[in-house]
Amino acid sequence: MSEETGFLARPDGERLAWRRVAGSGPTVVWLGGFRSDMAGTKAEAIARWAAERGRAYVRFDYFGHGESSGDFTQGTITRWREDSLAVLDELTEGPLVLVGSSMGGWISCLAAAVRAERIQAMVLIAPAPDFTEKLMAPEIDAAGREALARDGVWLRSSDYGDPYPITANLLEDGARWSILPGPVPIEAPVRILQGGADPDVPWRHALELAQALNSDDVVFNLIKDGDHRLSRPADIARLLVALDEVCLD
């Protein structure tokens, strides 16, 4: 698989790492999750899919993520939305298929709302719109609220590794980008893959997004025993089937 790599310079001097597969049809763009990166199982699987089918594909790391520069604790939804729009505007041309995982599902919706004329379709995996306000904030205990008020940061426990910092700035900024209960101004076809056993994004939360989208061409695929990552071989196969369906020339 031949993949071009590079860095996209941002106005403040930070750099976004990216990888690109040349090909035809709409450009598929990967928008990863919170604290994730472009080298994950699903992003890599799409890169192989793109190379095999001769499809254009771009993936990147947000500010403070993966190979990109920046301090993760300085990141916000505003910043990561701007990163995504910069990638769309500077690294792609023509129609787009946005593939958003978890937080990337939220960022995809925010980007699609202002680049509607270019969006051919979207594929969302365990989409987490408004997660800062609706999923994360309610779980903060009294000690966490005290830490946020005192230090501006809360260490959130994780099932995937060590606790990680959540800043008051992230929570406050995220609330400004709330899109639920909708309506969400997206008219393009949308395919949603959601695990029924997802401990991070309840399936009803993802379903609320599906119902809020303006598009009538929305398919919600509930994988009853699926977790948040949806990276098992069968889950990856479902993702690639969805891409084959929406990536029409």
Describe this structure in words.
The protein is of the alpha/beta class and 249 residues long. The protein has one domain: Rossmann fold. 36% of the residues lie in helices and 26% in strands. The strands form two sheets. Strands 1-2-4-3-5-6-9-10 form an eight-stranded mixed β-sheet, with helices on both faces. It has a two-stranded antiparallel sheet with strand order 7-8. Helix 2 crosses helix 3. It is globular and about 55 Å long. The mean pLDDT is 96.
Write the layout of secondary structure elements.
Elements: E1 4-9, E2 15-21, E3 24-31, H1 41-53, E4 55-60, H2 77-91, E5 96-101, H3 103-114, E6 119-125, H4 131-136, H5 142-151, E7 153-158, E8 161-167, H6 168-176, E9 190-195, H7 203-212, E10 218-223, H8 233-246
Parallel strand pairs: 3-4, 3-5, 5-6, 6-9, 9-10
Antiparallel strand pairs: 1-2, 2-4, 7-8
Helix pairs in contact: 2-3
